[in-house]
Amino acid sequence: DSLDSLTTIPLHAFRFLKPNSLQMEILDSGGVTMPTENGGADLDTLRHRKPRSDSSNGLLPDSVTVSDADVRDRVDSAVEDTQGKANLAGENEIRESGGGGGEAGGNVDVRYTYRPSVPAHRRVRESPLSSDAIFKQSHAGLFNLCVVVLVAVNSRLIIENLMKYGWLIRTDFWFSSTSLRDWPLFMCCLSLSIFPLAAFTVEKLVLQKCISEPVVIFLHVIITMTEVLYPVYVTLRCDSAFLSGVTLMLLTCIVWLKLVSYAHTNYDIRTLANSSDKANPEVSYYVSLKSLAYFMLAPTLCYQPSYPRSPCIRKGWVARQFAKLIIFTGFMGFIIEQYINPIVRNSKHPLKGDLLYGIERVLKLSVPNLYVWLCMFYCFFHLWLNILAELLCFGDREFYKDWWNAKSVGDYWRMWNMPVHKWMVRHVYFPCLRRNIPKVPAIILAFLVSAVFHELCIAVPCRLFKLWAFLGIMFQVPLVFITNYLQERFGSMVGNMIFWFTFCIFGQPMCVLLYYHDLMNRKGKMS
Description:
Elements: H1 3-6, H2 19-28, H3 44-47, H4 66-96, H5 140-165, H6 183-191, H7 194-207, H8 213-237, H9 242-274, H10 289-297, H11 315-345, H12 355-392, H13 409-415, H14 418-434, H15 439-462, H16 468-474, H17 476-490, H18 492-526
Helix pairs in contact: 6-8, 6-9, 7-8, 7-9, 8-9, 9-15, 11-12, 12-18, 14-15, 15-16, 17-18
């Protein structure tokens, strides 16, 4: 075909477009004029235009000259845009008319819609799943497929588990007569309120200049140390349930972190208030029992005299979150009793015996353990902390970030537990940097504090000091630097996969098996 036949656009093809917009489309496309009365287009303007520098698009024959290629490229673009809009308009009119054809079916002339003479392939395009276009597409359908497959696979596992073990949930799962033996731990929880009052008394005395600064520091050290050692002693002395011991130790760690923040923040405020070069001229030192009481109840570990507040309490929203909390807590209990306990009981020590058997047990335990961990995160960090914030009108509710997209282990620790992260940065990391301690020792010190409290929360209720939790947290330090290097070298996906593997596939199931078998061995020796 000649070049003129390719650029001949019938006048009827433009009947679906507004004349003004059509003229702008054609004129902006590179000089194509409006069709003439005989159906052709005047190409004199195009042929005399200066060709572009990139005249060849890689799809034209070698025989085409530079000027012809430029003309054809411009005309193709004009024809494609015009034909596409005509086709779209035709489709819309056919759809609105109920699918009829011709003049009787909505007055649509289909003679010039999707003409065979119009090329169907005009641009270089990538397939949706190619490496250049896969992240530019929406994967909502694939996400729905993953959800359907996940539900189907887990439904089969539930049926298989019920057929093999039966219903394992006991009627005394939530509360039983043996729970009354844990009353010393309950009384210990109530008595923890003494320590914030003691810290407030110390701050009141220093405000009245009754004691010196070194005495204040010494008294706060005594208060915080006693607050930790007292619950540890009660837990070890009483034959309490594991869940009761974990609850007491978690509450003990939270109170200790709050007391340290209270003492450290007041010390910093006193320092700024007494210094000549104040960083903030509005800083003034005062103590208030009301602000301390609010801080001890608020979902934060960092003390400050006032917090951003929300305007009101949404009672209906709180009721819905409570309902979700009950449902997901029951789901966690179901997974623990119905899946994790049978797997753990039928396993051997992962560091003893056959290696392949140990790997199989860890992989089998990883899936239900992952579900429990995700439910725990959702229940505590999203539901419970938001409920508490709503009841107290606490405004700053950034309790976590998108840690599931963590590009490295360091990103995960900075995003998954924002109250603890802010406490570490405020009271450990940057104080070390201000004292000219290098960055790496400051990071190690922050992980050391975290490792000690992880060990306390698990080893004390188990009455078993094997340091598995401590070593597991300290093992994160080299992983931080390794995943940072891999992220810089190979991109973010490698670090994210290593994070998921170390935490969910290997780390947590291995710790569960280690503590369970060491606990069973200790009970066997005692009996």
